[in-house]
Amino acid sequence: MSQAVSMALAAAFALPAFAQTSGTPEVPVARVEVTGSSIKRASAETASPVQVVTRDDLAKSGKGTVAEYLQTLTADGAGSLPTGFGNGFAAGSTAISLRGLGATSTLVLLNGRRMAPFARADDGQKSFTDLSTVPMEAVERIEILKDGASSTYGADAIAGVVNIILRKDFTGMVLKGEVGQSRYHDGEMAKASLTWGMGKLDQEGYNVLVNIEGYANKELMNKDRADRKWIGAGDLRRWGYPQNTQFAGGFITPGASSPTPTGALRDPVTGNFVSLPGCAALSTTTAQDPAGGCLWYHDQFRSMQPKIDGFNLYTRAAKRLSGGHELYAEAGYSRRDTEFTLIPPSVSPTVAFPPNAQFPTGVINYGTGANAIVLAANHPQNPYGVPVRLRYSAFDVGPSTRSADNAFMRAVIGVKGEVAGWDYDTAYVHSRSELDLNYSNMLNMPALAAALGNPASNLFPYYIGAQAGRNPASLYQAIARNATSHSTTRLDILDFKASRELMQLPGGAMGLAFGAEYRREKLDNPSLSGTENGSINASYVAARGDQDIKAVFVEVVAPVIKGVEVNGAVRYDRYENFSSTTPKVGVKWTPIQTFALRGTYSEGFRAPGPAESGVESQSTGTATARDPIRCPGGVPAAGGATLADCSVAVGAVKIGNPNLKPETSKGVTLGMVWDPLANTSFALDAWKIKRSDEINPLPYNEAAALPDAIRSDNNLVVNGVVQPNTGSLLLSRAPYRNSSFTEVKGVDLDLKQRFRMGDYGRATLGLTWTHIASWERAESATKHYQYAGTHGNCDTSNCAGTPKNKVSMVASWDRDALNLTATANYRSSMQNVAFAGDLCASKFANGSDAPYGCKLASFTTLDLSARYNLNRNLQLFASINNVLDKVAPLDPLTYGGLSYNPMDASGAIGRYFKLGARYQF
User: Fold this and answer.
1) Average pLDDT value for residue range 254-276
2) HSE toward the beta carbon, residue 488, CA cutoff 13 A
3) Is residue 423 packed enough to be buried (19+ CB in 10 Å), middle (13-18) or exposed (0-12)?
4) Which of 7, 162, 490, 858 would you label with 128, given CA atoms 20 to 30 Å apart?
């Protein structure tokens, strides 16, 4: 393949390519290492599909962070963690999920090496790399390997690899600053960076680089979008939905009441709850509950986007040594403080924690039974003269704020060079992540129980609702508290790798690489203070563990004949309790200069993480599900069930299982690259990944049907007969287990067209399309779930769904000092079902399927950016995100955003403007 064609393919598809080394080139070509291989090559095209994102791509996108950009990739799917997911386990972090297989199956590297994971596992289960720690201005390029690479990098590369490569060998100084705000004059952001470097490695023998970046984003509330149709709204009655949706509170149903700001008392005669007076002064909802409750919605308090303050520091130094060696070192520090506002606490939660002598089940139900919070018989607000159960949302205590302060550091020291014809690289890496959580306005449950129900307590009586103004400050000091935790992860690596050309084959030089790695991982994620014994209104979430991993690998690239190149690799990993051997083979055939066929087969694995296998690990997650007892067949059961039972937030307790086996995977790709015309490039790749022995909790819908699910005692009453164990679902048990498999199949298409326009400059059009043909999860031989084109999997990933098609189109025009770029991102519609063939997951108030046709509309956004070089030093730039101000479709099922899909956040925030300047000395 000619050098011109290789360069065209590399630029067009951002697909790394092997060198064609038959013959000696007249001009030496620099050899570089491509993600997924340890063998250096002179060009960039391999048998594996790889997408390359350049500094220029990042700048033209108008995105403010690496995570924001990567989450627009068509290969990103369910399990991706957006900034606005404040009620998730890993709030304050961001992550990418290739192929929708979860962040834990996407390996993220920094300069080709691992980083310590975020210090709290997502869903209490999945360890992942936080993209928020990466300094945007320091990025040189990002390589996304779209097939598995466990044969090179080890565990977690099942869905692919994201290798973020930072700048090196930079000289000079660059100052950059930008500000932004939405069309609503809110959501302001500011960001500034300085990049400085001196010394040219090739000429002067050394280089030092320093990048400093600081940024701040103001909090954006859901109520700030009250006039943006359904965005951020908990009350969807204007659009035909019932009042009792997942973000509603205060409503009363037969024998039950959700937490209400006035307080609702259970009538000891009828068994029904009755609201106390004073609702108008507490709830902003005007169309009130016909059943007499004090109706309110979460948007009265909850954040849409968090307050963020962040700082990044990255330094790199390199020194040429005698004999062709180079000493290098990297050091990075990142701090990101986020703060979310959530709803006020409820006095009647059901909490789970490790069993103890007092509570051998490890569960306390503060709503019913012996531990129920009650209002004492002689409490001034109790008209019944006997202790009565209470449902109360403590607006007087105030909304809970969740602060997540994450600090990340990483240091690398290494040597590389050439010895006896071998290129080698060896280094020691130390990486550490620390997370401090601080949840305000949590309830001290023993003090609360005394203040409401024990006349002998010095805290009694605690006045609630409309009379809360009578309480002294000392009462709140006793019943409200902050819950905190300090979590850490640590990663230490010692690695070595070497490569060289061995011999000449008919198609070129044969390459060989080998390497070894020792890795120590440690996680210490204690639960929030007070959750260890159920004494606050939150469940226990903790994980602890450490492990040593030793690995060796070997890789061969063989141009067996002219135009045919075969590569193969195998890696052996040894863990404390098991070992794994993962092979990979790839073939590329280039029959003519402008056309190539390629394919790969790879195997991968993922070891059980400490959150999944640790005996000290436990978590309780919540997801939306249909109660199989109170809403059979999608219809509320007779005797007191309502539509709220058909879409209920189900809590599920998950406990570490030391007997788990590793997940394993097999992946196949088959594709072609083609340059039919001089300025036209085309690539098409089909792919399939099958992940077996998957580590999953029992699906929530199945756990809800088990007899050990914990329910309230508002049992259904049919023809005067109480139906036992049919009360409102509170908590289920969903233990970790190795389920059967998940198989995902699809197609990627990349197109690029260049136009040379003479005096009018040049233009480029690009399109990337990912089609998910099937996304099937098999729990057993008989239980299969198909998620492609549906809203599932809702057990994880904030229920963002699995659209069958995602498309990104980029049009860029350059003329002299000006660049204009337009980017359109599209996701296809999804059926509003938990899995294919299931009943519609949401209903209108009249009982019909919602949204209309039980389908969530597709969503397309258009972004614009411009850059203008005033002179050789000063550049001005601006961008408009969601320039058409498209409103995100109404999504009644997701719990990651209020009535909109969290992956459609730009359609919730609205049109957003940024303006900045860059000055280079």
Assistant:
1) 95
2) 8
3) buried
4) 858
